[in-house]
Amino acid sequence: MKKYIFTILLALFLALGCSKNDEEFLDRPPSSILTQEQIFTDPSAVLSVLGDLYNRYEDFGRLDDWASLADFNIAYWSEAGRYPAFQNDGWGFGSWGIWNYGYIREINLFLERCEEATELEASLKTRFLAEARFLRASYYFEMVKRMGGVPLILESETYDFSGDASYLQHPRKQKPPFMIS
After folding, report:
1. Which pTM does this prediction carry?
2. Positive or negative torsion for Cα 148, 149, 151, 152
3. If we measure between CA atoms, which residue out of 106, 128, 101, 107 comes closest to residue 117?
4. For every residue of 122-172, which 3-state class applies, written as one string?
5. Using CA atoms, how far apart are residues 138 and 87, in angstroms rounded to an integer?
6. pLDDT tens-digit profile of 76-131?
């Protein structure tokens, strides 16, 4: 009987002793999430965010097999069973299509936050901004190659949940006025 009472008292003591700092435990800052202020004050953290943007870049320039070489062309090859690749989900609208404006938004947010950063050196800040602008321009080029004229979104946009999303709709950009038709 003494053994059971001792076990119960020990468990009660441990439960009460371990729970006295619950408020301190719940008010700790998270160790796995970085805030914008923490990221854009440290050049290595900014470089890691930029590295993530490079990692998420969709590159369709690699060739996996001989048939993917023909994907760059508008020609129709005569391999049996490949006709559906040229129907409604053919070049530009199927696996080759790119409409990832979430990625464009992430680049725009990076550009805006990096421009607002005050604790980065000017040379590093210029480098990070140039690399992000290169990524955005290159991604737009990939989109235009596959989809034709695309809306150019150069600032991050936020939906206000009013029910009217017309201010988020942008027309496709046509060819520049300096192009000869």
Report:
1. 0.69
2. positive
3. 128
4. HHHHHHHHHHHHHHHHHHHHHHHHHHCCCCCCCCCCCCCCCCCCHHHCCCC
5. 28
6. 556 666 666 555 444 445 566 677 899 999 999 999 999 999 999 999 999 999 99
